[in-house]
Design a protein that fits this description.
Largest sheet of chain B: 6 strands, mixed
Shape of chain B: globular
Number of strands of chain A: 11
Strand content of chain A: over 45%
Oligomer: heterodimer
Order of helices and strands of chain A: EEEEEEEEEEE
Largest interface: A-B, 35 and 27 residues
Shape of chain A: globular
Number of helices of chain A: 0
Structural class of chain B: mainly beta
Structural class of chain A: mainly beta
Largest sheet of chain A: 7 strands, mixed
Strand content of chain B: over 45%
Number of helices of chain B: 0
Radius of gyration of chain A: 13 Å
Amino acid sequence: DGGITQSPKYLFRKEGQNVTLSCEQNLNHDAMYWYRQDPGQGLRLIYYSQIVNDFQKGDIAEGYSVSREKKESFPLTVTSAQKNPTAFYLCASSIGAYSTGGYGYTFGSGTRLTVV
Amino acid sequence: DQQVKQNSPSLSVQEGRISILNCDYTNSMFDYFLWYKKYPAEGPTFLISISSIKDKNEDGRFTVFLNKSAKHLSLHIVPSQPGDSAVYFCAASEETSGSRLTFGEGTQLTVNP
């Protein structure tokens, strides 16, 4: 079955540590995205990539980094520079850079990151 | 700058009645609008969409209405069912930004049996 897999589902991080959230898709989608969900703030875009080896900052990129070395994978690193990293992180993909029409994104099931 | 706003954080309706979820936007360049449904600890799933060239799109119990002059869209669910209880996100895109979506804050819908 095609879909997006995010791992782990729950992640605990100590202050000062970097952590990497995994996102893998087998939908053959060109575009991938990382969103963060906080209560009362909806989904905010962190980074997105419309093609392999290229990515752009979203609205809240500070303290995060990404890579897109393969079409299937778009890992997100939460660095120690991110001051408030506790949140629910969602990865998504779409068919192509200009393919919003019709079905929009396919989302993963999310990773809950907690700083301890 | 919140370009997509859902002003009602929550909505409660009785089973069998109509649920109306509202969404306002400020960016006149938005030309495609979508609604997503999200259960706790899961990713959102696509529900229904509408292009700016239309003012209504219907899919079973779900209908989305778009009022471009008012920069307002709404999602109607008729009849509402307890399984519809979830958070609903409105999202919008503009052609010049490619596939990037801008989401609203979400509305928690509770359908009471």
